[in-house]
Write the C-alpha cells for this entry.
Amino acid sequence: MHKMIRRITYTLERHVSTVVRGTTQVRRFLHGAYFKIHPSVQEALMDRKPVVALESTIITHGMAYPQNLRCMAREVEEVVTTNGAVPATIGILRGHIHVGLTDEELEFLASSRNTVKVSRRDLPYVLSQGLSGGTTVSGTMIAAHKVGISVFVTGGLGGVHRGGENSLDVSADLTELGQTPVAVVSAGVKSILDIGRTLEYLETQGVCVAAFGQSREFPAFFSRQSGFQAPYHVQDEEEAAELIASALGLGLNSGVLIAVPCPQERATSAQVIEEATQQALSEARSKGITGKEVTPFLLQKISELTDGKSLDSNLALIQNNARVGSCIAVALSKLQKARRKRNLPQREDTTPPQPVVIGGINVDFIAKAQNPVILGGGQTNAGRVRRTFGGVGRNLADCLSRLEWAPLFLSAVGKDEHSESVLHCCHHMDMSAILHLEGKSTATYCAVVTRGGELSIGLGDMDIHQQITEQYVSQFKENLCQAPLVCIDGNVPLSTIQYICQLAREYQLAVCYEPTDENKASKPFLSDSWKALTYISPNLQELRAINRTLGNPLPAEELPFRLEDVVQTAVALARPLLAHLCCVVVTLGIHGVLLCGQSLGGSISLCPGAHKQTAAASLCATHYPAIHISREEIVNVSGAGDSLMAGILAGMLAKHDTDTCVRMGLLAASLSLRSYEPISPAISTSTVSQEQVKSRSWPEVKVWKMD
C-alpha cells in the first residue's frame, strides 16, 4: 500500500507540475506577450459594451505639455464616457501595447520627450527594444482590432501628401484602412494633404467612405469644405452603425471611414487654411523637412499663421469626433445586441426549457475499509467493495432529476461493458444526448475509503471526458440558450468551458461551475472567461487554487480547523471573485456551507444579475451548519458536495428563498452521506422540499460582513 501511495503521489506531483506550467503558457497566450488591457476596457469588451479606441500620437506629438494632457487626453476621454461608451486610449509603454491608460500612464506619455511615433512599420522595433510611444491611426487600428474594438476616434486622417505623385509620400493610415476592419471616425483628412488623391487612394484600397450629417461634402479637418464629395453619407449614428455592422458582417477585412465635419461655430475658413498651408509648405521645403516630421511641422506653423484659430478648430473637432464616435459605438452595440437576440434559436413547442448539465460520467469502484486503520505493505485490508455510478456532471444531473428538474445531460461514454450498465442505472435521467464512442473506454474511478467515509486514495481513467468538445456541445445551442440554468463541471475541456462562458455572455445565461477537484478547479480562470459565470461551488482547496491562478494573495497554507478560522479563510478567498460572480458557495465538509455574495434585504440573493443591479449592496457571508450525522452513519462522502449544490439549484429553479434553497441542499447532502451511491436513491421531492425544510428545526445561521 505504501508503495502504491508513493507511486500515486509521484504521478500527482507530475500532473500538478504540468498543470501549473500549462496555466502559465495558456495565460501568456490568452493575454498576449505584448498587450496590457486596462480592467475597465477588458470588462467592457467581455460584456459587449460600447468601447471607443483613441490614439496617442495626438498626445505625444500633437500639442505641448500640459495642454496635451488636459485637452487631448482627459477631456476627450471624458466626452466618450459622458456619451455612454468606455474610452480606450492606446499607447506603448516600455515595450507593451496598453489598451486603456491610467492617469499615471497618460501623464507619462504626455510629459515624456523621448516617445516614438508608432505606425505599423514601427511596432516590431519599438516593442522589441522596450520603448514607449504614441500610436498613429495605423498603429491604433492594429491594436484596436487585435483586442476586438470596432470604433476608433481620431482628429484627422493621414493621406497622400501634396506632391505625393512624385514623392510617393502616402500615409500608412490609408493602407491600414484597406486591410484592418475598424471604423475610423475623423474630421476627414488633414487639410495640408492632397484630398482628391487621398480619396482616390482610399477607393483603390476598397475603403467605404461616408460623410456624416446632411451633406456629402468631404470635410477638410479645420474646415467643413474641401471641394470634394464623399462617395456616400450617413445622416446619424444609427445609419453609421448599420454601415459599420454591414462591413463587419461581410468580413471584408477592410475599414470604414466616417468623416465628421468640424462644428460650424468653430470651423476655420477654407481660404485662410489654404493660404497658411501654402506658406507652411514653402517653409518646410526650404528647411528640408521630410517624412513623418512634415505633418507636425505644418500643423504647428499653420497654428502660428492663423493666430491659434486652427488649434481652436483642432480641439473642437476632436471633441466633436469623440462625441459622434461614442454615439456610433453605442448605436452599434445596441444593433449587434438586437441582431444576436433575433438570431437566438426559438423553440417550436410549449414545453418548458430544461436545465442543461455538461460533465463527466464515471463508473466508480468504492472500496470501504472495515478497520479504523488501512494497513500498507501489500497487505489485504478487510472491507467492502461496491460498484456505483458517479462523475460530477452525472451526479448533478441525477440529483436534479430526482427533484423533478430533469436536465438535458451532455457527456460521453465508450461502447464497452460499462455503458449499458450506466444507461440502466440512469434510466430516470434524460440521457438522449450522450455520446457513445467506438474504441473509447467509459471513464472509471477507483476509491479507497476509510471506515469513517473519508477518501484515502483514488485512481481514475477519464480520458473520454476530453471528447465532451465544443463541437459536440454546440450542437445543442438551442437548448443551452433557452435553459434556465447551465451546469458544467471541471472534467470537460477548457475550450468547452470557454464556449459556454461565451454563450453566457451573449445570451445572459445563468451558469454554475462545479470545480470537480483542486487540479481542475482553475480551468475557467486561465482567462477572463470566469467573469461570465454566475455561481461556483468550490471547497477551500479548490478556492485556494483558483486564487493562485488569478495571482491573488493567499492566506497561510495550513488549512484551518476552527470554524471561525475556516470562515475567515473562505471569506478572504471568495471576496475577489464577487466583483463578477453572483454567489460563491463554499463547501466546508463537516462545517456545512458558506454562502458568499451581496446582501439584499438581509439575505444573499441567488437571482442571477442581482449583484450587478445593486452595486451599493454590502458583501456578506452566511454560514449554514451541516446536519449532524454520526460517523457510524456516514457511508460515502463522494457525492455529498454534488447533492448539496444540486439541492440548492433545485430550490433556486423553483424560486424559493435563499435559506430554503441552502437547506434543501443540506437535506440532499445528508441523505447521500448515508448512501453507498454518490446520489442517494432516497432523494425525492418528498424528502427534499420546501415543506421538509419548514418541518425541521435548524441550527442558527451566522452572518459575517465581507466589506
Remarks:
- The mean pLDDT is 85.
- The chain has two domains: 34-337, 352-705.
- The domain at 352-705 is CATH 3.40.1190.20 (UDP-N-acetylmuramoyl-L-alanine:D-glutamate ligase).
- Residues 547 and 573 are 7 Å apart (CA to CA).
